[in-house]
Design a protein that fits this description.
heterodimer; A: alpha+beta; Alpha-Beta Plaits; Sulfite Reductase Hemoprotein, domain 1; four-stranded antiparallel β-sheet; 32% helix; globular; B: 77 residues; alpha+beta; Arc Repressor Mutant, subunit A; two-stranded antiparallel ribbon
């Protein structure tokens, strides 16, 4: 199905919105960069430049030199922001303490998220970063950008902010680092009104949803991650921009169990593509892999000689549920034991494909270790269809939110609330029947207990009948 | 809606604190108006934000509400 935007898309005239010329963007030479010293001594930061990886210190120095050479009227906040940011960071290295103050009432009108107030607590020494607020920009599904768009955002940010940005850490958003309070509304206007670009989530709200590349490029995608991500982002705009949750809440969407956005570890509600029917096997292609005609793993590990492909050693023996066999030139899979780990499919993609009855598994409660320890998500919905308009998924989401908003304490993540209530109680509240899939080792884990109403006859017994058979 | 807005403002004015979690506002409103629904209270908060009576305060990870001009300054302390 072709993409249907929710709102009419106006044509964006990027060329009219660009600010800098190519000469202004490339305004220093390699030689100048080599000899460039920022105005503060930063010996420890310069140590970081010596390692084998690209260093943010080197990147920041390029930004600092670039700003030094721009004309005065070509930027709206202090020229020295990057140099002062590095200078203050060196102080933190010296003292082992941060000098950023958290929080504040900065924001843009009507939105409770997307702008994060940050202030220096050494404003006399580093005046240009007295205010150094962060703006989160809602990334497009799968992070596909038009380069004109990126250049325009970069120009705007150089002009109205520090020019420093980081693209796509764990939050997903494009993160613009460092501007003053006065610049927030103009930036918001330019992003939303000129570029058709919303800002993302922060604080106690729905955070910017993010998805894997999905059907756009990946044949493994078992549902349209981009479509679901876009739909829920649009449908839950109020939750995204007007925070009223007990704490943050994240959705992430993986098209298959390979989990390229690691939703299982990084989101309160993780959607992972899966299938209900059998893995499709092309026996001829299996034979071709065994004969060495096709490279295993689509050549992904071809950098070194691993010897001849051994289907027993590399596939059958590594199946986590030991449900495969290769006998007399035929591959067999006991599908009811398969846990959809994707291993066999990843190794032999030309021979094996997931089934055709596809949908999502929904897992809840992953989080980073801020309060309690870090936690992976727990499988709650083993299978659900994932097709527009996704009413079944929305209904489930709202049931979970209702419970969390009712019972969750201030700053309690969904995963912590689930732990506090216990899985059996939680399942009962959201109306999902217990299933062995929810328990890691179902035969050993007494996670799910029988209740009296689940047992024919309940707990009571006829004592006379019992005594007839058992001496006192 | 108007009585919920009134209850929110009264709570915010009378409290010793200057910043409130949504949950605290919800509880305070339900004390005065027991059948007020969470969604209605949220809508009332949004209306008060939009008319400038309330403002958001955010640390980046969690968000609170406060009365504009009452103990809430741009300075995070
Ligand atoms: S999670 Fe699966 S579907 Fe999505 S990009 Fe990765 S391999 Fe492809
Ligand atoms: S997907 Fe994983 S569990 Fe299923 S048959 Fe293949 S290797 Fe085994």
């Amino acid at each position: 199905m072709p993409f249907e935007p929710k709102e009419p898309q106006k044509e964006i005239k990027y060329s009219e919105m660009r600010i800098y010329t190519d000469e202004e963007l490339n305004n220093y030479t390699e030689e100048e960069l080599k000899n460039f010293k920022i105005k503060h001594d930063i010996p420890d930061l310069e140590e970081l430049e010596k390692g084998p990886w690209p260093s943010f210190v080197s990147d920041a120095k390029q930004g600092a030199l670039h700003r030094r050479k721009l004309a005065d009227d070509r930027m709206l906040i202090d020229r020295d922001v990057i140099e002062d940011m590095l200078g203050q960071l060196q102080v933190s290295f010296d003292e082992g303490e941060t000098h950023w103050k958290h929080g504040g009432i900065v924001g843009v009108f009507g939105y409770g998220g997307g702008v994060i107030g940050r202030y220096s607590d050494l404003p006399e020494k580093y005046p240009s970063i007295a205010h150094f607020h962060t703006i989160r920009v809602n990334q497009p599904a799968s992070k596909f950008y038009n380069t004109d768009f990126l250049r325009t955002v970069c120009d705007m940010w150089e002009y109205r902010g520090s020019g420093l940005m980081n693209l796509h850490g764990s939050t997903g958003d494009m993160v613009l680092l460092g501007t003053t309070t006065e610049q927030l509304e103009p930036i918001f206007f330019e992003l939303t009104h000129e570029l058709g670009q919303d800002i993302g989530g922060s604080g106690s709200n729905l955070r910017t949803p993010s998805c894997c590349i999905g059907k756009a490029r990946c044949e493994y995608a078992l549902y349209d991650t981009q479509a679901l991500c876009y739909e829920l982002t649009q449908y839950y705009q109020d939750e995204l921009h007007r925070p009223a949750f007990p704490y943050k809440f994240k959705f992430k969407f993986d098209g298959c169990p390979n989990g390229c956005v690691a939703s299982i570890a990084r989101s309160d509600m993780s959607f992972i593509g899966t299938w209900r029917d059998d893995i499709r096997i092309d026996q001829e292609a299996v034979k071709a892999y065994v004969a060495g005609e096709y490279v295993p793993n689509a050549g992904a590990h071809a950098g070194r000689d691993w010897g001849k492909f051994d289907i027993q050693k590399e596939v059958i023996d590594l199946c986590p549920s030991k449900c495969m066999a290769y006998e007399d030139g035929e591959l067999k899979i006991d599908n009811k034991e398969c846990v959809r780990c994707m291993h066999c499919i990843n190794v032999m993609p030309r021979a094996l494909k997931p089934g055709k009855d596809t949908g999502v598994s929904i897992l809840l409660g992953a989080k980073a270790p801020i309060l309690e320890g870090a936690q992976m998500a727990t499988l709650i919905v083993p299978f659900m269809k994932a097709e527009p308009p996704y009413d079944n998924i929305k209904e489930f989401i709202e049931k979970v939110w209702e419970f969390w908003m009712e019972e969750g304490k201030n700053r309690e993540r969904l995963g912590e609330l689930m732990q506090r209530f216990g899985l059996p109680k939680f399942l009962e509240i959201i109306g999902v029947p217990p299933a062995p899939h929810m328990v890691k080792t179902p035969r050993e884990n007494p996670y799910i207990f029988w209740k009296e109403e689940d047992v024919p006859g309940g707990w009571s017994r006829d004592i006379k009948d019992y005594r007839a058979r058992h001496k006192r | 809606m108007e009585d919920i807005k009134k209850a929110i403002v009264e709570f915010a004015e009378s409290s010793k604190k200057t910043k409130f979690y949504f949950k605290d506002i919800e509880k305070a409103v339900q004390k005065v108006i027991p059948d007020a629904k969470m969604r209605e209270i949220k809508k009332a908060c949004t209306a008060l934000i939009n008319d400038g009576t309330l403002i958001y305060f955010s640390t980046g990870s969690s968000t609170m509400y406060g009365l504009k001009g009452r103990g809430m300054t741009e300075d995070p302390e």
